[in-house]
Amino acid sequence: MDLSGTWPPPLSGPALEHGRAQDTARYAIDGRAPRFAVRPATRDEVVEVVRACDADGLALVPWGGGVALAREAAPQRYDVALDLAGLDRIVEFEPDDFTVTAECGVTLADLRAALAECGEELPLEAPEAWGATLGGVLAASASGARRLRFGGPRDRLLGARFVTGDGVLARSGGRVVKNVAGHAIHRLLCGSRGGLAVLLEASLKLLPLPPSRQAFVHGADAAAIADTGRWSVFPRREPAALTVIGRAIASRNPVLAMPEPFTVVTGFEDDATWVEACAQFTRERLGAAKLSVRDASVPPLWQALADAEEMPGPRLTFATAHNTPAALAPLAHRALAERLVFHAPCGRLHVWPAPEEAGALVRELAALGFALIDARGIEVEAPAPPRSIAALRGRVRAALDPHGVLAYGERWARGS
To answer: If you average pLDDT over residues 239-261, what whole number do you get?
Structure first.
């Protein structure tokens, strides 16, 4: 297949109509646009595009909503943007089994609305849910503030259909829990950023909407954040969320903006009696809240926490076993604290440093038990994975993308 001219050229098999071509400028990554962009309407058309790229040695990047991808570092080679937004059907929804199968181009907001009609939810959050797609959420392993309580994408994913880098349509796992068997290749795809395969369809475990929800927004100064005694018993309450947001980021959302240096959001989901007991505990510990919301008003607050993760600029993401706001004590009095989001229960810290302070920050936080897991828009030195892990990653990539068609595959194989 020759892609040197206007997309698409004559093809055998299910032809891609001219209307599938897209404006390449919409798919720029870090300011770099691809040579071609296409939005297939069917699974077969996706396979056709991937096979064409494999035949012609072109580097491909799968696109969902583009919420975060546009801010990533551009890959070394970027020829084709493969927009999956045309594959947006809910294929099978079994409320009695608490499972759903959907194409990966469906937006998180549309999926939530369909599930809520039957009193169920997929407990994953991602920035800008109106545009973020299911495939993008899985590929980025996004989950939000509730990750510890309800699990991340790997925990909820039962099975998937995907296209490997050489254009093979494959399936791993199943659509319901009892049918899941074999190697869990689908879970490897979570967090791969489209570097191992093109996700087409996913089957996921759902949860019933909780009987009761309650959440609070408080302000806090550096001394309050560093007060170990204040926070030490919060983990026993199993909060759905306990998030600290620096003022520069919180000020971008009127709901989260506070005069204090930090905004603290706490929330609980369970039966009504337990939630009320946790709410009373929170009031005793933290005092009067700026905002208190219940039940249907709580999910928009969870979404605001996810949206806070997408502040523009270079971002470092760390994981830690420290699960209370007191873990931020070494940072609380520094200017950098204005630009952080810390989901304490799941130990996920996002920081937006100045480029010149990034390297020192990585080393400092490593000594405090924070491991760098992602760097966006900035180059930093991170510990290399053990040789055995690096070798295994290389073998996995070679099996799923033997000719290096998927542009972010090398990054995945390096573990960066």
So the answer is: 96
Q: Positive or negative, the Cα torsion across 189, 190, 195, 199?
A: positive
Last residue of a domain, one of 208, 240, 274: 208
Q: Which domain holds residue 124?
A: 90-208
Q: Please provide the average confidence, as pLDDT, over all residues in the chain.
A: 91
- 312 strand-pairing partners: none
Whether residues 184 and 235 share a domain: the answer is: no
Do 237 and 351 belong to one domain? yes
Cis, peptide link before residue 8, omega less than 30° from 0 = yes
Could you give the CA distance from residue 252 to residue 244 in angstroms, rounded to a whole number? 14
Give yes or no: residues 40 and 63 share one domain.
yes
In a domain, 235, yes or no: yes
Tell me: the pLDDT tens digits for 285-340?
999 999 999 999 999 999 999 999 998 889 999 999 999 999 999 999 999 999 99
With contact defined as beta carbons under 8 Å apart, do 126 and 308 qualify?
Answer: no
- Which two tokens mark 235? 């983990």
* Tokens 């009761």 sit on residue: 212
Task: Say whether pLDDT at 4 is over 70.
Answer: no
User: Strand, helix or coil at 29?
Assistant: strand
In a domain, 410, yes or no: no
User: Residue 383: what pLDDT?
Assistant: 73
Q: In what order do the strands lie in the sheet with 60-63?
A: 36-38, 80-83, 60-63
**Residue with more model confidence, 225 or 7:** 225
Using the Cα atoms of residue 286, residue 287, residue 288 and residue 294 in order, give the sign of their dihedral.
positive
Nearest alpha-carbon partner for 353 in 324, 314, 304: 314
Number of domains in the chain: 3
3-state secondary structure of 245: strand
CA distance 140 to 145: 15
Helix (H, G, I), strand (E, B) or coil at 181: coil
Do 108 and 124 touch, CB atoms closer than 8 A? yes
Token digits of residue 100: 């759903």
Label residue 383 exposed, middle or buried (CB < 10 Å: 0-12, 13-18, 19+).
exposed
Between 20-34, 218-232, 235-249, 332-346, the lowest mean confidence (pLDDT) is in 20-34
What local confidence, expressed as pLDDT, does residue 277 receive?
A: 97
CA angle 319, 321, 327 (to 5 degrees): 85
CB contact at 8 A, 389 and 415? yes
383 in any annotated domain: no
Q: How far is CA 192 from the centre of its chain?
A: 11
Nearest one of 313, 336, 321, 320 to 372, comparing CA atoms: 320
Task: Let me know whether 291 and 228 are in one domain.
Answer: yes
